[in-house]
Amino acid sequence: MYDTSSVLEVLDQLPLAFLVSGAAVFIGFYAYYIESIRLAKKQKSFTTPVLGNMVNFAHDIVFISMFSHWFYEIDHIIFKLFWVGLVIYTGMEIIVHIQTIKYGRQELAPSLTQTQFIVGYIAAQVGVTLIFIFMMSLIPADDLFLIKFSLAVICIVVSGFLFNHRRQGRGSSLVQAASLLAGGTVMFFGFLPALSPYFENDYYRAAGAVVVLSALLNVIIVWNNGPNSRRRERVLPL
Protein backbone atom coordinates (compact mmCIF):
# COMPACT_ATOMS: atom_id res chain seq x y z
CA MET A 1 0.00 0.00 0.00
CA TYR A 2 1.15 3.53 -0.70
CA ASP A 3 1.99 5.83 2.20
CA THR A 4 -0.55 8.67 2.49
CA SER A 5 1.84 11.18 4.05
CA SER A 6 4.46 10.49 1.38
CA VAL A 7 1.93 11.12 -1.41
CA LEU A 8 0.86 14.38 0.20
CA GLU A 9 4.51 15.43 0.48
CA VAL A 10 4.92 14.79 -3.24
CA LEU A 11 1.81 16.87 -3.93
CA ASP A 12 3.16 19.72 -1.77
CA GLN A 13 6.00 20.07 -4.29
CA LEU A 14 3.59 20.08 -7.27
CA PRO A 15 5.98 18.15 -9.56
CA LEU A 16 5.65 18.82 -13.27
CA ALA A 17 5.03 15.13 -14.02
CA PHE A 18 2.01 15.14 -11.71
CA LEU A 19 0.61 18.41 -13.06
CA VAL A 20 0.90 17.34 -16.70
CA SER A 21 -0.36 13.79 -16.19
CA GLY A 22 -3.16 14.90 -13.87
CA ALA A 23 -4.36 17.45 -16.40
CA ALA A 24 -4.20 14.83 -19.17
CA VAL A 25 -6.27 12.33 -17.14
CA PHE A 26 -8.96 14.88 -16.37
CA ILE A 27 -9.06 16.22 -19.92
CA GLY A 28 -9.26 12.69 -21.32
CA PHE A 29 -12.20 11.58 -19.22
CA TYR A 30 -13.99 14.92 -19.37
CA ALA A 31 -13.70 14.78 -23.17
CA TYR A 32 -15.08 11.23 -23.15
CA TYR A 33 -18.18 12.22 -21.24
CA ILE A 34 -18.76 15.45 -23.13
CA GLU A 35 -18.54 13.60 -26.44
CA SER A 36 -20.78 10.79 -25.15
CA ILE A 37 -23.44 13.29 -24.12
CA ARG A 38 -23.19 15.09 -27.47
CA LEU A 39 -23.52 11.86 -29.44
CA ALA A 40 -26.46 10.60 -27.39
CA LYS A 41 -28.34 13.86 -27.91
CA LYS A 42 -27.59 13.83 -31.64
CA GLN A 43 -28.36 10.16 -32.27
CA LYS A 44 -31.17 9.71 -29.70
CA SER A 45 -29.33 6.66 -28.38
CA PHE A 46 -27.29 5.92 -25.27
CA THR A 47 -23.57 5.92 -26.06
CA THR A 48 -21.89 5.03 -22.76
CA PRO A 49 -21.54 1.52 -21.22
CA VAL A 50 -24.06 1.21 -18.40
CA LEU A 51 -21.79 -0.65 -15.98
CA GLY A 52 -18.88 1.71 -16.55
CA ASN A 53 -21.02 4.77 -15.89
CA MET A 54 -22.59 3.18 -12.81
CA VAL A 55 -19.21 2.31 -11.30
CA ASN A 56 -17.90 5.81 -12.05
CA PHE A 57 -21.00 7.34 -10.48
CA ALA A 58 -20.70 5.14 -7.39
CA HIS A 59 -17.05 6.13 -6.94
CA ASP A 60 -17.71 9.82 -7.47
CA ILE A 61 -20.85 10.13 -5.35
CA VAL A 62 -19.09 8.43 -2.44
CA PHE A 63 -16.03 10.64 -2.93
CA ILE A 64 -17.98 13.91 -2.92
CA SER A 65 -20.12 12.76 0.03
CA MET A 66 -16.92 12.62 2.09
CA PHE A 67 -16.59 16.41 2.12
CA SER A 68 -15.20 16.66 5.66
CA HIS A 69 -12.59 14.01 4.92
CA TRP A 70 -11.14 15.94 1.99
CA PHE A 71 -11.54 19.48 3.31
CA TYR A 72 -10.70 18.97 7.00
CA GLU A 73 -8.84 15.68 7.45
CA ILE A 74 -6.74 15.49 4.29
CA ASP A 75 -6.93 19.30 3.93
CA HIS A 76 -4.86 19.53 0.76
CA ILE A 77 -5.58 21.93 -2.09
CA ILE A 78 -5.18 19.21 -4.73
CA PHE A 79 -7.90 17.05 -3.21
CA LYS A 80 -10.15 20.06 -2.69
CA LEU A 81 -9.80 20.86 -6.37
CA PHE A 82 -10.28 17.19 -7.20
CA TRP A 83 -13.52 17.25 -5.18
CA VAL A 84 -14.78 20.22 -7.20
CA GLY A 85 -13.79 18.49 -10.43
CA LEU A 86 -15.71 15.35 -9.46
CA VAL A 87 -18.82 17.38 -8.62
CA ILE A 88 -18.82 18.57 -12.25
CA TYR A 89 -17.98 15.07 -13.48
CA THR A 90 -20.84 13.58 -11.44
CA GLY A 91 -23.18 16.06 -13.12
CA MET A 92 -22.15 14.66 -16.49
CA GLU A 93 -22.66 11.09 -15.23
CA ILE A 94 -26.19 12.02 -14.17
CA ILE A 95 -26.87 13.39 -17.66
CA VAL A 96 -25.62 10.09 -19.12
CA HIS A 97 -27.94 8.21 -16.73
CA ILE A 98 -30.88 10.29 -17.94
CA GLN A 99 -29.97 9.69 -21.59
CA THR A 100 -29.59 5.95 -20.99
CA ILE A 101 -32.99 5.78 -19.30
CA LYS A 102 -34.54 7.86 -22.09
CA TYR A 103 -33.00 6.06 -25.06
CA GLY A 104 -31.80 2.67 -23.81
CA ARG A 105 -34.85 0.61 -22.86
CA GLN A 106 -35.44 -0.93 -26.28
CA GLU A 107 -31.87 -2.20 -26.46
CA LEU A 108 -31.28 -3.05 -22.80
CA ALA A 109 -34.65 -4.38 -21.61
CA PRO A 110 -37.28 -4.38 -24.39
CA SER A 111 -39.66 -6.60 -22.39
CA LEU A 112 -40.01 -4.00 -19.63
CA THR A 113 -42.25 -0.97 -19.57
CA GLN A 114 -40.53 2.40 -19.24
CA THR A 115 -41.55 2.62 -15.57
CA GLN A 116 -40.22 -0.87 -14.86
CA PHE A 117 -37.01 -0.02 -16.67
CA ILE A 118 -36.51 3.14 -14.62
CA VAL A 119 -37.10 1.31 -11.34
CA GLY A 120 -34.75 -1.51 -12.36
CA TYR A 121 -32.10 0.93 -13.55
CA ILE A 122 -32.15 2.89 -10.29
CA ALA A 123 -32.05 -0.35 -8.30
CA ALA A 124 -29.02 -1.46 -10.30
CA GLN A 125 -27.22 1.80 -9.54
CA VAL A 126 -28.01 1.44 -5.83
CA GLY A 127 -26.65 -2.11 -5.96
CA VAL A 128 -23.44 -1.03 -7.69
CA THR A 129 -22.97 1.73 -5.12
CA LEU A 130 -23.45 -0.68 -2.21
CA ILE A 131 -20.92 -3.07 -3.76
CA PHE A 132 -18.49 -0.18 -4.14
CA ILE A 133 -18.95 0.79 -0.48
CA PHE A 134 -18.33 -2.84 0.51
CA MET A 135 -15.14 -2.83 -1.58
CA MET A 136 -14.04 0.29 0.30
CA SER A 137 -14.09 -1.74 3.50
CA LEU A 138 -11.64 -4.20 1.94
CA ILE A 139 -9.04 -1.47 1.29
CA PRO A 140 -9.37 0.85 4.32
CA ALA A 141 -5.82 2.16 3.98
CA ASP A 142 -6.66 3.79 0.63
CA ASP A 143 -7.19 7.17 2.31
CA LEU A 144 -6.69 9.13 -0.90
CA PHE A 145 -8.95 6.94 -3.09
CA LEU A 146 -6.09 6.30 -5.52
CA ILE A 147 -6.75 2.56 -5.72
CA LYS A 148 -10.51 3.08 -5.95
CA PHE A 149 -9.98 5.69 -8.66
CA SER A 150 -7.81 3.29 -10.66
CA LEU A 151 -10.47 0.56 -10.36
CA ALA A 152 -13.10 2.96 -11.72
CA VAL A 153 -10.82 3.79 -14.65
CA ILE A 154 -10.27 0.10 -15.40
CA CYS A 155 -14.03 -0.44 -15.42
CA ILE A 156 -14.94 2.44 -17.73
CA VAL A 157 -12.17 1.63 -20.23
CA VAL A 158 -12.72 -2.15 -20.35
CA SER A 159 -16.52 -1.81 -20.40
CA GLY A 160 -16.14 0.82 -23.13
CA PHE A 161 -14.28 -1.72 -25.26
CA LEU A 162 -16.84 -4.48 -24.56
CA PHE A 163 -19.68 -2.05 -25.28
CA ASN A 164 -18.30 -1.13 -28.69
CA HIS A 165 -17.27 -4.70 -29.45
CA ARG A 166 -20.89 -5.81 -28.97
CA ARG A 167 -22.22 -2.88 -30.97
CA GLN A 168 -19.43 -3.06 -33.56
CA GLY A 169 -18.67 0.62 -33.02
CA ARG A 170 -22.23 1.74 -33.79
CA GLY A 171 -23.01 5.11 -32.26
CA SER A 172 -19.45 5.79 -31.10
CA SER A 173 -16.81 8.22 -32.30
CA LEU A 174 -13.04 8.37 -32.50
CA VAL A 175 -13.10 11.26 -30.02
CA GLN A 176 -14.67 8.95 -27.46
CA ALA A 177 -12.24 6.12 -28.15
CA ALA A 178 -9.14 8.34 -28.23
CA SER A 179 -10.19 10.04 -24.98
CA LEU A 180 -10.40 6.70 -23.19
CA LEU A 181 -7.03 5.68 -24.61
CA ALA A 182 -5.36 8.91 -23.52
CA GLY A 183 -6.96 9.03 -20.07
CA GLY A 184 -6.35 5.36 -19.26
CA THR A 185 -2.76 5.29 -20.52
CA VAL A 186 -1.69 8.42 -18.66
CA MET A 187 -3.51 7.28 -15.51
CA PHE A 188 -1.48 4.09 -15.16
CA PHE A 189 1.83 5.08 -16.71
CA GLY A 190 2.06 8.73 -15.72
CA PHE A 191 -0.32 9.98 -13.04
CA LEU A 192 -0.17 7.18 -10.47
CA PRO A 193 3.60 6.49 -10.73
CA ALA A 194 4.20 10.23 -10.26
CA LEU A 195 2.51 10.00 -6.87
CA SER A 196 4.08 6.87 -5.39
CA PRO A 197 6.48 4.04 -6.29
CA TYR A 198 3.75 1.69 -5.09
CA PHE A 199 2.00 2.13 -8.42
CA GLU A 200 5.03 0.86 -10.32
CA ASN A 201 4.59 -2.71 -9.07
CA ASP A 202 3.89 -5.60 -11.45
CA TYR A 203 0.18 -5.74 -10.60
CA TYR A 204 -0.39 -2.14 -11.59
CA ARG A 205 1.71 -2.51 -14.69
CA ALA A 206 -0.41 -5.51 -15.69
CA ALA A 207 -3.60 -3.56 -14.97
CA GLY A 208 -2.24 -0.69 -17.05
CA ALA A 209 -1.45 -3.06 -19.90
CA VAL A 210 -5.04 -4.37 -19.83
CA VAL A 211 -6.37 -0.82 -19.89
CA VAL A 212 -4.15 0.24 -22.79
CA LEU A 213 -4.89 -2.93 -24.79
CA SER A 214 -8.64 -2.55 -24.24
CA ALA A 215 -8.51 1.12 -25.23
CA LEU A 216 -6.46 0.38 -28.36
CA LEU A 217 -8.86 -2.37 -29.44
CA ASN A 218 -11.69 0.06 -28.83
CA VAL A 219 -10.07 2.62 -31.13
CA ILE A 220 -9.63 -0.04 -33.83
CA ILE A 221 -13.27 -1.13 -33.56
CA VAL A 222 -14.56 2.41 -33.86
CA TRP A 223 -12.10 3.23 -36.66
CA ASN A 224 -13.14 0.18 -38.68
CA ASN A 225 -16.87 0.20 -38.01
CA GLY A 226 -17.89 3.65 -36.84
CA PRO A 227 -19.15 6.63 -38.88
CA ASN A 228 -15.59 7.51 -39.88
CA SER A 229 -15.29 4.25 -41.80
CA ARG A 230 -18.33 5.13 -43.88
CA ARG A 231 -16.86 8.53 -44.69
CA ARG A 232 -13.57 6.90 -45.73
CA GLU A 233 -15.45 4.48 -47.99
CA ARG A 234 -17.12 7.39 -49.79
CA VAL A 235 -13.80 9.18 -50.22
CA LEU A 236 -11.80 6.08 -51.14
CA PRO A 237 -14.19 3.57 -52.78
CA LEU A 238 -12.90 0.07 -53.39
Overview of this protein structure:
This protein has one domain (4-235). Helix content is 82%, strand content 0%. The chain contains eleven helices and no strands. It has helices at residues 4-12, 16-43, 50-65, 67-74, 77-103, 105-108, 114-138, 146-167, 174-195, 202-225, 227-235. It is globular. Keywords: Membrane, Transmembrane, Transmembrane helix.
SSE layout and pairings?
Layout (H helix, E strand, L loop, with lengths): L3 H9 L3 H28 L6 H16 L1 H8 L2 H27 L1 H4 L5 H25 L7 H22 L6 H22 L6 H24 L1 H9 L3
Helix pairs in contact: 2-5, 2-9, 3-5, 3-7, 3-8, 4-5, 8-9, 8-10, 9-10, 10-11
- In terms of structural class, how would the helical and strand content be classed? mainly alpha
SSE sequence, one letter per element: HHHHHHHHHHH
Name the average pLDDT. Answer: 91
pLDDT < 50 stretches:
231-238
Using the CA coordinates, give the radius of gyration. 19 Å
Query: Counting H and I runs of at least 4 residues, what is the number of helices?
Result: 11
Largest sheet: none
> What is the strand content?
under 5%
Distance N to C terminus:
55 Å
Q: Note the overall shape.
A: globular
Q: Work out the number of β strands.
A: 0
State the share of residues found in helices, binned by percent: over 70%
The count of domains is 1
